[in-house]
Design goal:
elongated; 2 domains; Serine Threonine Protein Phosphatase 5, Tetratricopeptide repeat; single chain; mainly alpha; 9 helices
């Protein structure tokens, strides 16, 4: 007799779990397929919205990501991950002013949230507002001294500034 194999449950929570694992492993096509199924079955699931938006973002599907992050914010208007991800997607499309709107909204909700000021620095740098980018990175590092992305960005900006100073 063949061994009995239990079928994997395919309800929305199982799909969300599998999709989130695929996202964590950067298997983006699998993540999108599973998370889209989870979202169809449970369209008001915050984690599904955020994770599907993140998968789209990593695939370069920024408009699709924006729709998911906007839906997440409809479900939880003060979601910092929703705001930061929505800002990042707008930033990726070159909509820096729109990104800054969401980041400012986030600053009103939680001014010390991890990566908030890093994301502000990225937007400021895109606009050529170097001093504001440096100040935002310094705030990020005061709040989160272990934020390696902020350290790296600050080092890169400082190096570029040093190279641009005439001797």
């Amino acid at each position: 007799m063949w061994p009995f194999r239990r079928a994997k449950p395919q309800g929305p929570q199982a799909l969300l779990h599998e999709g989130s694992e695929a996202l964590r492993r950067r298997k983006l096509d699998d993540a999108v397929r599973l998370l889209e199924q989870a979202s169809r079955l449970e369209p008001r699931n915050m984690a599904a919205c955020l994770n599907l938006g993140t998968a789209y973002h990593l695939q370069g599907r920024f408009s699709d990501a924006i729709r998911q992050f906007e839906l997440a914010l409809e479900l939880e208007p003060q979601s910092m991950p929703g705001l930061l991800n929505l800002a990042a997607a707008h930033n990726a499309l070159g909509h820096v002013d729109k990104a800054l709107e969401y980041l400012e909204r986030g600053r009103l909700i939680n001014p010390t949230h991890r990566d908030l000021h890093l994301n502000l620095a990225v937007a400021f740098a895109k606009q050529g507002r170097v001093q504001e980018a440096v100040e935002a990175l310094q705030i990020e590092l005061r709040n989160h001294p272990d934020n390696q992305h902020a350290v790296t960005m600050l080092e890169q900006i400082s190096q570029r500034l040093a190279e641009s100073v005439p001797e």
